[in-house]
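Q: What does the predicted 3D structure of DUF4038 domain-containing protein look like?
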Amino acid sequence: MTLLLGLLAALAAPADPGPTPPLTVSANGHYLEANGKPFFWMGDTGWLLLSRLDRDETEIYLATRARQGFNVVQVMLLHTPQMASRYGAPALIDGDPGRPRVTPGADPKRAGEYDYWDHLDWVLTRAQAHGIYLALVPAWGSLVEDKQINAKTAPIYAKFLAERYRDHPNVIWLNGGDTRAEVNADVWETIGATIKRIDPKHLVTFHPIGRTDSSWQYHEAPWLDFNMVQSGHRSYAQDGPSVRGEDNWRYIAEDWIKLPTKPVIDGEPSYENVVQGLHDLDAPRWGAADVRRYAWWAVLAGAFGHTYGENNVMQMFVPGKYKASFAADQRWDAAIEAPGANQMRHLRALIESRPMLARVPDQSLIADNGVRYDRVLASRGPGYAIAYSYTGRPFTMRLGAISGRQVQARWYSPRDGSLTPVGTFANRGTRRFDPPGETRPGNDWVLLVEDVAARFPAIAVRAR
């Protein structure tokens, strides 16, 4: 009898979330936690993973991104009404979002029989095994613009998703799909509110169109747990007189001070290896230095993490098999090792190595700041301060904002995670810091200034 009761209790207990417990917002409203511990979102855009990769390829993708230090993948559920898995299983019946195609009783061991949603179940399970959360976009914006998802189908589709995936621990919901938040707002509100009502355990945000921010339309929406920016893919020159341009840190800084306090992240900056502006196929491509800049700028401005993207990987491109978008030109499984992807781990390693939840952006630390590429972003926490220079230009820091009579300074390389000692000195007044090398775009360096008495641990960078 005791054994039977034990078995029944085990069956009734919630599944062990393993390395991916549900995420929550920290008490101060600016960051995320997992099981009460600080969580740094290091995301990748794997938008077409469900429709273009088979299970063996999916395993390669997830294992590689986990090795590189990524712990979130942003994935599209419905890119078009005809969305289907790599195995040809359609997501919908007759392209109707109000009629998801499910096939109860199919043998999951036989690739030709499991349906689209069974495949997503499997992908979630494998992502969980790799310590990865899936940030799921219910539908690309065009499905709402073209009225396939409307006042009638939105609550049906959202209810289906929330009920089916509310028990998976590694789910995050990205309502919206590269779309204007103020257009068809009633439909997006319905999707967000329905998912949150049925699945209150998982975080919900909104993925907006480029150069916009979810906070502009939905900051006070009860279903929106954190804000997401799409700082976009254009250059300063392509933006004309835009105040923000490539300055993605501006969105983060604006959201940091909004009330009620909510976390914020840049969920889509310029992708590595994509042409600037996306549509001019002869334009220069964004490179590793650019994606590093966007990441460090956003995080030091107050973001709780960052999402990286690579042009060929985000569309799982295979030359000769798929039509190239935005001048994609490499197989995804080669482009997955792009330099920028392998350098994101150094950002995560540094931020996680110091007290995360008490870190605040503080531009007053920089006494002689510049504009555009010469902007130095800075933040500080208990006993430490961090400043990032994209061009490696010399700058002056105001000391005394952190604890300690004596502080030590080191240069941290965002390219390889190496540390170069600068010196130890009194924690008062101002001090000029000159990064190694010549001043030029891409000679980026991170200045780490710390209270000598704090004795922080070494920065643990994941092995490649």
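A (community wiki): The structure tokens above were generated from the sequence. The longest strand covers residues 171-179. The two ends are 51 Å apart (CA to CA).
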